Structure formats: structure tokens, C-alpha cells
């Protein structure tokens, strides 16, 4: 039967000089870490429906549609009173703060922001912050179309990845 003694193996056979165990041998452990705040989300996807916007409502370059919104809802939050959120999506060429839509429509991009009005570009590094004092959090977002060039009607949607850091 073998056993570990102060970090060294001592066997049933004793070989003098081959395995020395001293009374002052010791092994120190340093354990590091932390417990991070956390929240679960009610749903891991939200959909912002921009609806059918008439081409006439986007009459010229810079014209915008109304903001439409949706929110992620948190639950089972432990120690979290703040969330820092970034978004990554394909930027519209020449307009890095806007998202390039997928579909038949051309000449439009999608602009995102938090429900409180903080711009949320698709760069994956610009953060918006949410805070709450009690109860489950709601991370609200809004989107709208922005005309950026000659307009061709059709579908125009996008998908973005959101990263949330709970604090």
C-alpha cells in the first residue's frame, strides 16, 4: 500500500538514501478566485419588428423610420445590479455605426440603441450600461431604418450577437 507523505511517495519497501522524508517538508496551496454576479435571461433571443415602412417615409438620404423596441428580461439575479452590453453585427459599408441588413432592400441600414438612448454600434466593443435597484432587470433595445443611399424596396432584416457582462 502506497501513501503520499508531504508531497513525496513512501512505499512499502524502504530504500535508504533513495527517498528521504524530512520533518520540515511542507506543501502550501494558494487558492484564488471569486464569485461573480449572475442573471439568467427569460429568453435568449428577442425580436424587434420594424414593420412595413413605406418607401415614401424614407424620402431622402438620412431619413429615418420610427424607433421600435424589445427587451431582454432577467431572472434569478444574484448580486447583479448592473449589466454592460456590447453588440456585434455586420456594419454597413461606409457607415460603421449602422448594421448592414440582409434582404432585397437596398439603400437602408439599421441603427440600434438602448431604450434609454445610448447608441449601440455593431463593433463588439462599444458598451451600453444598464442598472437597476431591485427586482428583475430589463435590458431594452430599439432599432430603426436609416436611409443611406438610393432606395430599393424589399425585405431588410439583420441578426446581431449581444454580449452581457453582469456586475
From TrEMBL:
State where it is primarily located. other
Q: Which residues form the Fimbrial-type adhesion domain?
A: 35-165
The entry's localization annotation reads: Fimbrium
Pfam families under this entry?
Answer: Fimbrial
UniProtKB keywords: Fimbrium, Signal
- Asked if the Swiss-Prot or TrEMBL record annotates the protein with the keyword Signal, the reply is yes
Name the source's superkingdom. Bacteria
Q: Which family does it belong to?
A: Belongs to the fimbrial protein family.
Quote the protein name from its UniProt record: Fimbrial protein
Please give the organism: Luteibacter jiangsuensis
